[in-house]
Automatic annotation (TrEMBL):
<dbReference type="InterPro" id="IPR004175">
    <property type="entry name" value="RNA_CPDase"/>
</dbReference>
<dbReference type="InterPro" id="IPR009097">
    <property type="entry name" value="Cyclic_Pdiesterase"/>
</dbReference>
<dbReference type="Pfam" id="PF13563">
    <property type="entry name" value="2_5_RNA_ligase2"/>
</dbReference>
<feature type="active site" description="Proton acceptor">
    <location>
        <position position="143"/>
    </location>
</feature>
<dbReference type="GO" id="GO:0008664">
    <property type="term" value="F:RNA 2',3'-cyclic 3'-phosphodiesterase activity"/>
</dbReference>
<feature type="active site" description="Proton donor">
    <location>
        <position position="57"/>
    </location>
</feature>
<comment type="similarity">
    <text>Belongs to the 2H phosphoesterase superfamily. ThpR family.</text>
</comment>
<keyword id="KW-0378">Hydrolase</keyword>
<feature type="short sequence motif" description="HXTX 2">
    <location>
        <begin position="143"/>
        <end position="146"/>
    </location>
</feature>
<feature type="short sequence motif" description="HXTX 1">
    <location>
        <begin position="57"/>
        <end position="60"/>
    </location>
</feature>
<dbReference type="GO" id="GO:0004113">
    <property type="term" value="F:2',3'-cyclic-nucleotide 3'-phosphodiesterase activity"/>
</dbReference>
<protein>
    <recommendedName>
        <fullName>RNA 2',3'-cyclic phosphodiesterase</fullName>
        <ecNumber>3.1.4.58</ecNumber>
    </recommendedName>
</protein>
<comment type="function">
    <text>Hydrolyzes RNA 2',3'-cyclic phosphodiester to an RNA 2'-phosphomonoester.</text>
</comment>
Amino acid sequence: MANHRCRSNNKLCCIGGRFMRVFFGLELSQETALAIDAWRERQFGEPGRAVPVANFHITLAFIGDVPETALGTLCQAVDERLARRPVPGSQLLLNQTGYWPKAMIYWLGAETWPPELTTLANTLRSSAGSVQKKRDRNVFVPHVTLFRRCPEAPPAPLEPPSFALPYRRFSLFESRERREGVSYHPLQDWPLAAASE
């Protein structure tokens, strides 16, 4: 039996030709997101376009544009893979920053992370094969994007970051483009297995 829960009023298997841009990710608690934002404001000027606090998340697997009618198939593929190989929840320590010049992104991430999180990301990327041929092949680096459109990396923060991020579930998000900007909306949640002692 599927163990995810719906996070919206959308019917995943409705009839229609609408495409949705979706990805799997970890949601940050409001407390953690606000703490990261306060730290960001203390450390940096305006090296690029600041990502809104409401959009802070960690991408596990970018799926891209899929028909709304295919979301049920995608969720079922995730259910089946997790049933065969459960992945435990754990915790990340967001304690380093980085810069990707090609994408012009400055980010906050983890120096190390549980290997099971990489396993989860790879599992979700494999699940994308149920709805499309193209797969996200970027190296998985768990991070929160702080700024976009940075022509260069800002100076290193004077106050080193240190944010604990426990995670016990992950979500399927829809990315919606509006005149006022992009927003992310969780559609489905999956609990992770209890961590072994």
